[in-house]
Write the structure tokens for this entry.
Amino acid sequence: MKNRIGLVVGCLLIMVWCLLPVAWIISLSFKSEAAITNGSPGFFPSDGGGAGWANYQAVWENDQFRRAILNSIGISLIATLLSVIVATLAAYAIARLEFRGKKAVLTIALAIAMFPVVSLVGPLFDMWRAVGLYDTWPGLIIPYMSFTLPLAIWTLSAFFREIPWEMEQAAQVDGATSWQAFRKVIVPLAAPGVFTAAILTFFFAWNDFVFGISLTSTENARPIPASLSFFVGSDPFNRPASLLAAGAVIATIPIIVIVLIFQRKIVAGLTSGAVKG
Amino acid sequence: MSTVTAPATSRTVASDRARAETRLGQKLVAPAIVLMLLVTAFPMLRALYLSTFDYALTAPDERDFVGLSNYLTALTDPLFWQTTGVTVLYMVVTVAIELVIGFAFALVMHRVIFARGVIRTSILIPYGIITVVSGFAWQFAFSFQNGFVNGWLPFVGDDFNWFGQTGSAISAIMVSEIWKTTPFMSLLLLAGLAQVSEDMIEAAKVDGATWWQRLFKVILPNMRAAIMVAVLFRALDAYRIFDNIFVMTAGAEKTESISFLTYRQTIEQFQLGLGSALSVLLFLSVLVVAFAIVKLFRVDLAQARQEA
């Protein structure tokens, strides 16, 4: 009985830990701009005047913000798609084939996962300007791919190792063509792993900040985290907190939707990639 | 997994097959390798080259070879050592706190049988949220003008400015960092916890071991590998701390980390020569930290690479 109460308290603590700051930023996004300028300490907007949906409307009508959301969605999706395709090829080779250089691939992937990203932005800034990739979508997609590949390769090769590949041959023995065997047997078995890798890759690309601020200069390619950080409003010494909060909530919605739908897959992917069960 | 079931009657057939397999394997990993090296190894070599020049983008034509003097400038500047010290402080404190809280979370999640989905969903939200958003949320929470922290904490005055001095500003940055990354830590530890055999814990219980004894003598030693991998990953991640500092203090009040200093020199001040030297030093210091953790805690890297 004592144990039971401890567990319930533990669960409540975890949920408060995880959700309190989210609740706070939502609450903040409903404070009015006037209240923010005058100062309105307290958790709830009632302490300083509510704004209704005004902040959301203002943010949504801001061209820079809309453009940044579009950039983020486009860049993250393309980077995810390409990264997962390249990682699938590599992970298949790592999980199924014996070849020289396999250890080297895994070592490089590990090294890159630990690479200090900031040490690259100087030379990349220089190189991208020279080849015309600065402030373009591909200029961000390429680094995102490079830095999500390690995670994608680990996750996928862990998944691929668990696939009973003999079933492909079994299907062929039963009269399926190789294409049918691949499409009807292997694809459904591999899909969950590919999907998990895609979600984790998307999270990385959506979250990136260092490349986003260093390799862009205009709204041409600037993604949402960079755009939020440069959004100062009319008074740079008093940031428009409630507007920023509304923007932050909008930027968080895709993440929350993905988490709500795929939580089981994400947990499996995160843990299989790092510690083998 | 033996996939090649064809009868290898003669040796030449087998070695031909092996050679073909190697060729196919290398072809399949080639795009990944090229992409990973294109954006890391190549720029890093370029940084090494640029770091030997006095080179600023504000005066691109006046590029003079200066040998190692950029490194000398960086290494003799107290700012370099101060930011390195602050970075190590961020790393040690956040990882230590995350380890304790993350382990507590993992214990709860491991035992809990009800509402698993809800707990998992909640724990993934900080993990998935943009670091910049977390930085904003906590910056505004600590703000004395519009936040709630001063009002909730009994021992802090209502007009206390958290970002007015080094100690409290660093604490606020750490809170944001810890909030966002503890869930990741707890999920890694949860996976490790699942590998500890229940029988062993049960046996210790029968032998009269208390809860603390079971924790320290049975559970923790048996998930050592998982803990070490989690610490290694998180520590190297924490050492690169940047986003939260950028958003919450912009490096004011001596909260600057080594990553932030490097960024400021290269992108904001256009000092590509000195900035590149700092990039190389940052890279080397990450290597040192990784090596130190691996040696100090005897981390089993085969486990991390999961190619045992």
Remarks:
- Chain A touches chain B through 108 residues (CB under 8 Å).
- Chain A has a mean pLDDT of 84.
- Chain A has twelve helices and no strands.
- Residues 55 and 243 of chain A are 5 Å apart (CA to CA).
